[in-house]
Amino acid sequence: MRVFLSVLTMLFYAGPAAAQASAPSLHMELAADHVDITTGFNGTSVVVFGTTGGPGDVIVKLKGPERTVIVRRKGRALGTWVNRDNIEFRRVPSYYDYTVSLGKAALAGYPALLREEEIGINNLGFYPEDEDEDAVTIGLFRDSLIRKMQEKGFFPVGPKVLSFLNPGFFKASFDLPPGVPMGIYTVEALLVTEGKVVARQSKTLQVGQVGFNARVYLFSNNHSFFYGVFAIMMALISGWSAFTFLRRD
């Protein structure tokens, strides 16, 4: 029902926009403005519908809350592997993905647009806290961070292809994998003409736990000491129970 109402709303906006083609416009709606993480969550899809009221290409980005991430590099010392070097990166998106309607070669032709709008993982604005570090070393640690995020499914390998269902009516879809970070996500759509953004719109998406998982999560954060004591007690009781009831004698 929400998807149906969203489509009707966008078609309503599309009519005036088509009549005023000289003034580019963009309207976007989410199929759902929240993602509920429950027990057994195996991932989901975030679906975006939108309409354009003028010529141009469309780029849609989905970005999670920013965090500080420490990347460590191991080295051998006295016959064992230990953490020897580390770099702390600031403003790292906990999740990032994007979809575009123009080809990869055409997209690469607008480097200023990619840099200013942070389109693509190589243009994300996260930076090392110690900017005096050697540029080559920073590059190695940055590449390692990106690879780890890609392995988890939190960063894309490349852009997705945005599809137009009808002229001026597009659909974008993003996959959220299991273990996706919680928080407020931002969905932003851009209408681009000749490398310039002529219209934009953004929406927020709430990703969070619900039900029993949410209560446990809140308790562990608000009462960490008691949560730790309870976890130790449960481990001791489980071990004693297994020893008592499963012993053969």
Explain what the structure shows.
With 249 residues, the protein is α+β, with helices and mostly antiparallel strands. The protein has six helices and 13 strands. It has helices at 2-19, 104-108, 111-116, 135-152, 212-222, 224-246, and strands at 26-30, 34-37, 44-52, 57-63, 66-77, 80-93, 96-100, 127-128, 160-161, 163-166, 169-176, 183-193, 196-209. The strands form three sheets. The chain has a six-stranded mixed beta sheet. The protein has a four-stranded antiparallel beta sheet with strand order 1-3-11-10. The protein has a three-stranded antiparallel beta sheet with strand order 5-6-8, covered by helices on one side. A hairpin with a 2-residue loop joins strand 5 (66-77) and strand 6. Helix 5 packs across helix 6. The longest helix is centred in the last third of the chain and has 23 residues, at 224-246. The termini are far apart. The model is unreliable at 14-21 (pLDDT under 50).
